[in-house]
Every structure is written in structure tokens, then in C-alpha cells.
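User: Teach me something about this protein's shape.
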Amino acid sequence: MERLRQRYDLAADDTSMDWKFEKWTKGKVFREVLEWEGICGYSDWLLGLVEDIYGIELKEDD
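Assistant: First, the predicted structure itself:
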């Protein structure tokens, strides 16, 4: 939640948008956090690496 608040230029204790963030799918949250960190367009690739290396399938839910 902290990173999403930062991404949308909210204070760390500003919960005004939390209701919206909580409705997002895990896939959207993952993409938003990666983009905030400057990693754009790699969410599917990273999820694929986790599956290939660790054998854990993290399914996109959107």
C-alpha cells in the first residue's frame, strides 16, 4: 500500500485512495509497483522467471 500511495503522490498516512487500490487485482498492483520502481513492461517476463526458476506459478488474475 505504501508504494501505491507514493506512486499516486499521496502521503504515507493518506488512506483516501486505499479503497480503490484494494479493488485492484494482484496483477495490476504488481504492474503498478514495478512501474513505480522504473521497471516498465516486464511483469509477465518476471512472473515467467519465477515459474521457470522456482516452479511456482503466480497466475495473473486480470
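Now, about its shape. Residues 1 and 18 are 7 Å apart (CA to CA). The mean pLDDT is 93. If you'd like, I can walk through any region in more detail.
User: That's plenty for now, thanks!
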